[in-house]
Amino acid sequence: MHTVPLTLLTIIGEGLLRERLITEIERAGAKGYTITECSGSGSRHRRVGELLGENMKLECVVSPEVADKLLGILSDEYFPHFAVIAYLSPVSVIRGDKYV
Amino acid sequence: MLEVLRINLCSPISLAFVLGLFARIIRSELSLPRELYASLSIYLLLALGLKGGVELSHASMAELAWPAIVTLLLGVITPCTAYLVLRRIGRFSIADSAGIAAHYGSVSAVTFIAAQQFVQTLGFPAEGFMPTLLTLLESPGIHVALGIGAVQTARLASQPRADGSHPVERRPLKEVLHEVLTARSMILLVGGLACGFVMGEKGYEPVKPFFEGMFKGALTLFLLEMGLAAGARLGDLKSTGLFLLAFGMIMPILHGSLGVFLGHWAGLSIGGATVLGAMAASASYIAAPPAVRMTLPEANPTLYLTAALAITFPFNIVLGIPIYFQLARMLAG
């Protein structure tokens, strides 16, 4: 089967950021995303608080350029103050034009 | 005073709260499902709004005008005093001071309900339009404090940090305003008030057993959850320091006394002045935290959540409300 190499961007962070992050990825050019609720612990040791909601994992398949742009936005505007991590993974998809 | 304290401590609300705290302290596995917490808060806020709306339909504008004015005044004064004390005496950063002040400027609906139940138990019911005052006090304090924070940090926002990076861009006031005004608590309270006002006593009658008959039971269960949530924050008291501990107990007394005084001056009854005092003394932990987190991300959430939830909320539930009641009784002679 013919597959196209693309990039999977995964963002895990405070659930409160949900709407803002959706706007960011859509503005940057992502065509879709998947969100799941999740929990865990990281370098900030504890979540902000049960009253502020669970953590969320946002995944989107994008072109390497869009992924890079989004990592830049996350680094500048989110990493300094919010509990957020992000990472990239190479993926192979069919119907590549659906994502870019 | 001791008798009033005893009555308050032995109420189902206080006991459920203490049970929740105790369960967390001994690390019990007890926890309420998130959906139940959300359902209870929806039920309580809507019940409060509906009942308030029905009562509001009986109230005259003349009766409501002065209490509404002093409530708005409290919404402006309390975040300013809290900010000044935190910044000047506590030496907190601008963001932390504004973040905490936003919580103390807004109001805790659960403290309001607890105060309302307390004065009712003692035979001094508050005015029926009090939920209207609750909605009036919910958002101004948050905006005033966030406004102070934004103005104070405006010059910093234009300067790059030492490491060359730029601070987080401020969100437009319009977005923040939209977030606070469309928050679940505001929709339920204001919407409930409007629905109650329109339906009046007759329309309310069929749903009354559901919204009033189960109210105290639901509140007791909710307070159990609040006890668990506050208990989970007790460990943070070590890191927040003694100043915040003292602030979380002294500030409510000052704001509460001001609320009682202004309420009395505006013509509220003993019960009404007590409830207004409890409202002014309380710190929000439902509406304010997300607004502050999104608008002032530099502010440390541990500080404002611990102060509002683990210090001021239990203080008001156990000691504060009886104090404001005594004060209101003294003022009324």
TrEMBL record, chain A:
Residue ranges the record marks as coiled coil: none
One family name in Pfam for this protein: P-II
SUPFAM superfamilies from the UniProt entry: GlnB-like (SSF54913)
Signal peptide: none
Gene Ontology biological process terms from the UniProt entry: regulation of nitrogen utilization
Entry's Gene Ontology molecular function annotations: enzyme regulator activity
Top-level taxon in the UniProt lineage: Bacteria
Listed Gene3D superfamilies: 3.30.70.120
Protein name: Nitrogen regulatory protein P-II
Automatic annotation (TrEMBL), chain B:
Alphabetized InterPro entries for the sequence: Sbt_1 (IPR010293)
Superkingdom per UniProt: Bacteria
Residues that span the membrane, as ranges: 6-24, 36-54, 66-86, 180-199, 242-262, 268-291, 303-325
Key word Transmembrane helix present: yes
Protein name as catalogued: Sodium-dependent bicarbonate transport family permease
Claim: Metal-binding is one of the keywords in the record: no
Endpoints of the signal sequence: none
Keyword vocabulary terms for this entry: Membrane, Transmembrane, Transmembrane helix
A Pfam family this chain is assigned to: Sbt_1
Biological source species: Planctopirus hydrillae
